[in-house]
Amino acid sequence: MKNILEYLERTAEKYPGRTAVEDDKESLTWKELANLSRRMGTAAGKRITSGDPVVILAPKGPLALAAMFGAVYGGGFYVNVDPGFPSERLREIFRVLHPKLVLIRQEEVPLIRQAGYTGDYCLLHEAAGEEPDLELLERRRKDSRSEDILYGIFTSGSTGTPKGIAVSHRAVIDFITHFTEIFGIDEKDRIGNQAPFDFDVSVKDIYSAVMTGGTLVLIPRHLFSVPAALLDYLCEKKTTVLIWAVSALTMVSALGGFKYRIPSDVRKVMFSGEVMPANQLACWQQALPEAEFVNLYGPTEITCNCTYFPVKGILREEEKLPIGKAFPGRRVFLLTEEGREIREPEKTGEICVAGESLSLGYYHNPTETRRRFRERKSPEGKEERYYRTGDLGFWGKDGNLYFSGRKDFQIKFNGHRIELEEIERVLDQMPGIEKSCCVTDQRKTCLAAFYMGKAIPGEIRLWLKKRLPGYMVPRKIFQTEKLPLTKNGKTDRKALQKRLEDRK
C-alpha cells in the first residue's frame, strides 16, 4: 500500500461499527470516520490541487481528525495549527506554507485575518456536510505516490522562525508497521492520546489505531493539570496504551495520583521527549506491575522514533536509562564534530540517523534541509542520506545507546562546559525531589534549579556539592508546586528562564 488512506479504508471495511475515535463529547465509528473524511476531502479537493498544504486550525477532536484525512483525500497534506497560537506565529507558518485553504471554525476566522491570511477558507461544519464527489477523490488518489507529503509539523527554528517538517506517507507506513508489530498493538487496544495533533507523538497514536483498528481515545488537555480527573477518565475509557511525553507521566506520579486511583486496564506505557526520572518511573511500575514500559527516542525529522528500550525491572537511582537500539530499517550512529564515526563505548558524539522514514526535509527551506540532512557512504559503501539530530549520546558497554543531552543545553558557564541535563539527573536522584529543571539567564551569568518536592534548598545544595564539581552547583534553587509545561508536555525551559530573570 502506498497511501495512508488505503489503511483507513481497509480498517473501515474490516471494523465498520467499531469505535475509531472518541473524546469526552462525541465518537465516530471507523465507517463514520471514513465517510466524514470523504466529505471533507471533497470540500478540500474543490479548492486545492494535488500536493497543496491544507491548514487545520481547530481544537483536537474527532472532527479535526476527519479534516486531516479529508485534506489527504483532497490530494493535499495537512498541517495542524493550534488556535491558541499568537498571530505572529500564525503569520510565519502561513509565510512558509503559502496555503490555498484553511479548514476552520467560525470563531477562528478573525485569527487568520489578524495573521494576514487572505486566501480561501472553509468552515469545518460546512465541509462535513459536503456531498462526496467520488470521481474527484479517485482522480486525486490516482495521482498520488508513496513519497507524497502526508503531513507537516512546525517546530521552533534556531533563528526563531518556525520550520515546517514534511513527512511522507511511506515514512509513516514503514515506521508504524514496525511500531505496532514490535509492541503488539491490535484492534482490542484503546490508545490514550495525550499529545496535541500538531506534535508528532500524536502520529503514533493516530496511525497505530488506523493500521490496527484500535480505538483512539482523545484526552482533553485540561485534565493534565488535574491528576484525579485524568485518572478517572483513563479508567472510564478503559485505556490500554499510553504513548506520552515524560512530563505528562511525571505529573500524575509526582502529585500522588496513584494514591487516588490506578488505571488498571493500561498494559503498555511508552514515553519520550525528556529523560524519565528513575523515581517517577518506579512509581508507575509499582502502580502497574503487569504493564510493559518502553523508553522511546527520536526527533520529528526522522518520523517519531528511531530507538527504543523495553524497561526490565525497577532502576536503581544511580542507573542511567538507555534509549536502546534502533528500530528495524533504521541505522543510528554517532559522529564527532569532525564527522568521524564513534564505535568505542562511552565516547560521546552527535546522534545521527539513516535508513527508513527520514522526513523529506523542511518545507520551502532548502538551506536548512541541506544543513541538517547530509549524505555519506554507508558501512556497505553505498551513498546514504542521514539526519544530524543535535543530540549527544554514547554507546554503553551493554551495546545500548545512551542519551547525554542536547548540544543546545550544553552551556559555557564561568569558563566551564556544563550539561544542564547532567545536573538535573543528579537532582532527580535525591530523596524528596520529584522532578527538576536547570536553566541559566540569557547572559549565562546565573545558574538556577527549579524543583518539585519536599526537599529544602540547603539540603539540596549539600547533596549536589557531594556529587558535582562546585561550578556545576546552581547558585539559586527554587521550590515550585509544578514545573511549567510546553503544549506538547515537555518542561518549559523558556518559562523557567523568564521566571529566573523576573526574580533577579
From TrEMBL:
Superkingdom, natural source: Bacteria
CDD domains from the UniProt entry: A_NRPS
GO biological process: amino acid activation for nonribosomal peptide biosynthetic process; secondary metabolite biosynthetic process
Pfam families with a match to the protein in the record: AMP-binding, AMP-binding_C
AMP-dependent synthetase/ligase domain mapped to chain residues: 8-363
Protein name stated in the entry: Amino acid adenylation domain-containing protein
Organism listed in the record: Candidatus Blautia stercoripullorum
NCBIfam families referenced in this protein's UniProt entry, alphabetically: AA-adenyl-dom
GO cellular component: cytoplasm
Limits of the AMP-binding enzyme C-terminal domain: 422-490
Gene3D superfamilies: 3.30.300.30, N-terminal domain of ligase-like
